[in-house]
Design goal:
single chain; 212 residues; alpha/beta; Rossmann fold; five-stranded parallel β-sheet; three-stranded antiparallel β-sheet; 8 helices; 8 strands; 47% helix; binds BIS(adenosine)-5'-pentaphosphate
């Protein structure tokens, strides 16, 4: 069995982009806590209403809500997961180990990149509202403006939290919270750093090496 993967990295470091490749090429399931929260908001659920303002401001949702969300969406039985966006702090790392992984082999992949490079990536991100394909107006534009290369839909959207002010907050929150998370995995020899400033194929190659 391949190791469960935990993707750690700043907003815009490429976690979602690489998760899509790992799903298609290596048979993993993608569990993105950000995507799950956005789904709740779209559905108009009570949980969605509760987290809208927090996410719009670029702050973290409380730990108890995140545990409930994971419990409702994660069943490790026989599956290989990519945990993308969880954990965000040391307490969440411990919850993931004790309540979900429970000793199952896992690796934490840290998308290491200079934070100063990320605002531009995020502000230029567009995501297909139909199939989820991720684009970038500068580094990965669709072949035809406004049309998804993958599904042909014309529903490319900008995320609400990808504006200059919220991006600044999100990067600040990341800077303030990541070190204890990295220390947690480093102490257990489960941390692999990948150079996330490289182009997408080179980042994927590093992730594949970490899994093998
Ligand atoms: P979440 O959805 O997890 O967002 P994030 O962590 O801010 O990460 P992003 O999805 O923005 O970035 P990414 O690394 O996936 O980058 P991508 O591949 O798209 O969280 C959103 C919010 O939900 C949080 O702010 C919080 O409120 C809440 N939340 C979620 N989890 C939580 C938790 N556990 N606890 C509490 N709250 C939680 O790439 C970005 C752009 O860069 C794209 O345009 C892409 O094309 C481009 N790009 C990607 N790779 C490259 C490359 N190698 N070279 C050039 N461009 C690239």
């Amino acid at each position: 069995m391949k190791p469960q993967l935990i993707f750690l990295g700043a907003p815009g470091s490429g976690k979602g982009t690489q998760a899509a490749r790992v799903v298609t090429q290596l048979g993993y399931e993608h569990l993105s806590t950000g995507d799950l929260l956005r789904k709740e908001i779209k559905s108009g659920s009570e949980l969605g209403k509760k987290v809208t303002a927090i996410m719009d401001a670029g702050n973290l949702v409380d730990d108890l809500t995140m545990i409930e969300l994971l419990k409702a969406n994660c069943d490790l039985d026989g599956k290989n997961y990519i945990f993308d966006g969880y954990p965000r702090n040391k307490d969440q790392s411990q919850v993931l180990d004790n309540e979900f992984l429970k000793g199952v082999a896992s690796k934490a992949i840290y998308f290491d990149i200079d934070l100063d490079l990320l605002a531009e990536r995020l502000i230029n991100r567009r995501t297909c509202g139909d199939c989820g394909e991720i684009y970038n107006l500068k580094s990965k534009p669709p072949a035809k403006a406004g049309v998804c290369d993958k599904c042909g839909g014309s529903n490319l959207q900008q995320r609400k939290d990808d504006n200059e002010e919220t991006v600044k907050t999100r990067l600040g929150v990341f800077r303030d919270t990541i070190e204890p998370v990295l220390a947690h995995y480093k102490a257990q020899d489960r941390l692999v750093r990948v150079d996330a400033s490289k182009e997408s194929d080179a980042v994927f190659k590093q992730i594949k090496q970490a899994i093998d």
